[in-house]
Amino acid sequence: MRASRFAAVAATVVVLVSACGTSDDSDTSSSGGKEAPTIALFLPESKTTRYEAFDRPLFEAKVKALCPDCKVLYSNADQDAAKQQQQVEAALTQGADALVLDAVDAGAVAPLVNQAKRAKVPVIAYDRLISGIAYEYYVSFNNVRVGEMQGQALLDALAKGGNAGKGQIVMINGSPTDPSSADYKKGAHNVLDGKVKIGREFDTPDWSPDKAQQEMEQAITALGRDSVVGVLSANDGMAGGAIAAMKRAGYAKLPPITGQDAELAAVQRILTGEQYMTIYLDIRSEAEKAAELAVAVVRGEKPAAPTQADNGTAQIPAFLLDPIAVTADKIKDTIVKDKFYPAADICTGAVKAACTREGIQ
């Protein structure tokens, strides 16, 4: 994902975010006394750092830029489906005019979407494809392609290290309630099956790094430390958990491990050699596209979508963005160039020498 120019907008984001949180329902538009449109944003959890650090502030800032009088109701479910249900119902009760929903359990929220439909409130599925019902839009990334990139990167690393066709790998997939996780897994299997032996595979509840660490410990115990030659982790947080398990098991050299989200800690691990790669997602483009659509639908507009996503019940108009695979040699020309993180934030402590080696300053 050809990520955003964060530095150029950082100050703007800070100012706008502070101005566009949840407002009192009595607020009215400055252009005629009509109550301002209300857009409700629901994010699933905060263990993955991207949601609070990027998705929320970028979404809120874009809404404010496009619609200064629009109000944003924000809720984070902390990976609790029941809590998210209460949040959605509360937003509908408060008169939300559009819902942007990143579902904790995307296979179980059709009744909530149906409540919104009965109230004539348009719904935009954000990041995770909601199944079982039709709705207005879906905004996400090409998730199968993400898994394919992770799988291919792991194969490349094994070949580079002389371990192609040797030993076994461990697959640490994401939450079984997240349909994106199934897509990542499908993409990875598309590449890995028949080319490497998968010794253990886990679906990790809540995308939890702690649970990923436990899974990796189980895999090392079952397979033997020396037989594990690589790890397919679906995101960076779980990669951190798996790395902690391998360090605890006494690996002299860590086997290659994949990730996703370009979390700051993961970028630093890639530079120091603890993690092999991450998938760089243009979260700004995703958040801003969702904001654009939300503003459009509260104004009664219906923008055309470039493609559709099959959710098992309907073909959902979709905007699917492209991922980028990033290894140490690509950090300078992607994450740093796009100012996703300032070089000063990356190149701290023990990472400074690695930054110098890769020409990052």
Automatic annotation (TrEMBL):
According to its UniProt record, where is this protein mainly located? Answer: other
Top-level lineage group: Bacteria
- Keyword annotations from UniProtKB, A to Z: Signal
Q: Membrane among the record's keywords?
A: no
Query: Any signal peptide, and if so, which residues?
Result: 1-19
Q: Which InterPro entries match?
A: Bact_Solute-Bind_Prot2, Peripla_BP_I, SBP_2_dom
| Gene3D superfamilies noted in UniProt | 3.40.50.2300
Q: Single GO molecular-function term?
A: carbohydrate binding
Q: Any idea where this protein resides? A: Cell envelope
Give a GO cellular-component term.
Answer: outer membrane-bounded periplasmic space
CDD domains, from UniProt? PBP1_ABC_xylose_binding-like (cd19995)
Pfam families this protein is in? Answer: Peripla_BP_4
Residue ranges annotated for the Periplasmic binding protein domain, each copy included: 39-302
The name on file for this protein is: D-xylose transport system substrate-binding protein
- State the organism named in the record: Pseudosporangium ferrugineum
